[in-house]
Design goal:
The protein has 552 residues and is α+β, with helices and mostly antiparallel strands. Among the domains are: 120 residues; 107 residues, Roll (Chitinase A, domain 3), CATH 3.10.50.40. Helix content is 56%, strand content 16%. A hairpin with a 2-residue loop joins strand 1 and strand 2. It is globular.
């Protein structure tokens, strides 16, 4: 019975996929016709039908002018597009939320299957599970409605709880509004006119500030609730979850090099190459083999100006540090591959070859499975302004100046004794406790801090994308591990999701839909999104001198 049901599900998915492909093909043909019309080519349709269309359109306009004004004019603008319980969400706010989602997703749209060179509205979309076909604007509408329900429900709960933004958050909001006024002045507009031009009619300065303030309250109150949920799970509960499968929370460090299978050559060629690659049996040998292979493959490059000795760093390119089982399985698509790394008998220096459909990997284990401890550190930041002036000929750049300042400070600290107390006394020194890999988002910092050979009391200079930092490693927290945070975060997010789901089910936060206001909201959402899409196409044309579709 189960096999039969599964077969029916597969048939339904295939049927929906075929339907999706038909609708997408039809939609693409319509979009192609639109582009032809916009390019200036004449419509060859009979003139009689054009005349009839004009007459009919005129009659419709005369007959329903009052309805149109109600639906899309000033009255419609202030009608609710959505309600969350007794809270009204008017059309401009709804459209603003829709546009923000589109704007944030636009750069990644093509990864999701969105044709970002065409209107989102009416564009076919296949649901994630393949069970049905919809359109991207319908998906966005559904997502925005859910998001606004959550936002307004959490905001109401924050109000009930007496939650207030702290002064730091209010000051930051004031600064953002001041920047908005400066930007509007630069465009020779009032703030209200600038917002109407940038977004949609109805987003006033007061409403824009209220939107930003509500979002800050929601973020702040959500963070507070998350911390409450985290505190509900004591250490012994975290330990019990860890003990169920410790390897799920461990990491390994390894080196890896891929050999692509050549469909025209012998099937075992890549395997033989990978085995030869590992012949030295040492980490240094692995790095040297990778560098030699790269240099051999690129020695006949026609561009003699390329310095290939510095074009590829085998040490950095082959290292894969702090990888957990989930990462290895998802990256290489094979759970058996991950199991090899986390086998209890695995030790440093072990190596293997691993074959997939398209590649053979040479693998060298640098550090077997371990639980990553957190660290405490002090840091002093030397920022470089994004608008730093271009230096004159022979003058150091702002980044080079920052690096020199950081180097000088580190040298002075070492000369004066190089103690923890000395570093703490330096101007700008800030303490970060229980730091884990990825917290700062700086790979170079992680590589230094979490190196297996690192010892408390060491210091260095790290260059960052925005300047430099002097870092002092205060302690390795052997009693506090990354897995404790990971498990606590998992429990916390599960509790928070259940909390939000419970709010959605409460009658006072029920969703209500309003036809006229919603039509107005969709109209303006489409206007903003299509305008942004056209501006991006113009940018492509001006920046690269080609049509959007030629570029992609």
């Amino acid at each position: 019975m189960a096999d039969k049901d599964l077969s029916q599900q597969e048939k339904q998915r295939l049927k929906e996929k075929e339907k999706f492909e038909r609708e997408r093909k039809k939609w693409k043909q319509q979009e192609s016709k639109k582009r032809v019309r916009k390019s200036g080519k004449k419509d060859r349709g009979p003139a009689l039908f054009k005349l009839l269309a004009v007459v009919v359109a005129a009659a419709i306009v005369l007959g329903i002018a009052s309805i149109f004004t109600s639906a899309y004019g000033v009255p419609g603008r202030y009608m609710p597009a959505l309600t969350v319980g007794s809270q009204n969400i008017d059309a401009p706010v709804w459209a603003f939320s829709f546009y923000n989602m589109y704007h944030n997703m636009y750069a990644y749209g093509m990864y999701y299957g969105i044709d970002t060179g065409a209107s989102l509205f009416g564009q076919p979309m296949l649901e994630e599970d393949g069970s049905s076909t919809t359109t991207w604007d319908a998906y966005f509408r559904r997502t925005i409605n859910q998001s606004l329900q959550n936002e307004f429900a959490i905001y109401a709960e924050a109000q009930k709880a007496g939650f207030k933004l702290d002064q730091e958050a209010l000051d930051a909001l004031d600064q953002e509004m001041a920047k908005l006024k400066t930007t509007a002045m630069g465009a020779a507009m009032s703030v209200g006119a600038y917002l109407r031009n940038a977004y949609v009619a109805g987003i006033t300065e007061r409403k824009f500030r209220a939107l930003q303030e509500r979002m800050l309250v929601v973020q702040g109150f959500s963070a507070q609730k998350r911390e409450e949920f985290r505190a509900n799970h004591p250490d012994d509960e975290l330990q019990a979850a860890y003990d169920e499968d410790p390897t799920a929370y461990h990491q390994v460090d390894f080196r890896i090099y891929a050999f692509a299978k050549d469909g025209e050559g012998p099937a075992d060629l890549a395997v033989r190459q990978a085995e030869e690659f590992l012949a030295a049996g040492t980490e240094e040998g692995f790095i040297a083999a990778a560098q030699k292979r790269y240099d051999d493959e690129h020695q006949h490059e026609e561009d003699e100006e390329l310095d290939h000795e510095h074009d590829y760093d085998a040490d950095a390119a082959t290292l894969s540090p702090r990888r957990n089982k989930a990462y290895i399985t998802n990256t290489y698509g094979d759970e058996g591959f991950a199991d090899w790394f986390f086998d209890a008998a695995r030790k440093a220096g072990d190596s293997t070859t691993w074959e997939t459909d398209s590649s053979v990997y040479a693998v060298y284990l640098v550090r077997p499975a371990y639980a990553q401890a957190t660290v405490d550190l002090y840091s002093i930041i030397f920022d470089v302004a994004t608008d730093a002036p271009t230096p004159g000929e022979g003058e150091p750049t702002a980044q080079e100046k920052a690096k020199q300042s950081a180097d000088d400070l580190l040298a002075k600290w070492q000369k004066d004794g190089g103690t923890k107390e000395d570093f703490m006394a330096l101007k700008g020194a800030e303490l970060t406790e229980k730091a884990a890999p990825g917290d700062a988002g700086i790979a170079e910092l992680d590589s230094w801090l979490f190196d297996a050979a690192r010892k408390a009391g060491e210091a260095t200079v790290i260059e960052t994308p925005a300047g430099c930092m002097v870092v002092y490693l205060s302690s390795l927290n052997e009693d506090n591990f990354v897995w404790q945070r990971e498990i606590a975060d998992k429990f916390m997010e599960e509790d928070y999701a259940a909390y939000v789901q419970d709010l959605q089910q409460q009658p006072q936060y029920a969703l209500g839909y309003h036809g006229i206001g919603n039509r107005y909201a969709m109209r303006y959402a489409q206007k903003m999104c299509d305008a942004y899409m056209e501006s991006m196409k113009d940018y492509m044309a001006n920046q690269y001198g080609m049509d959007y579709y030629d570029y992609y």
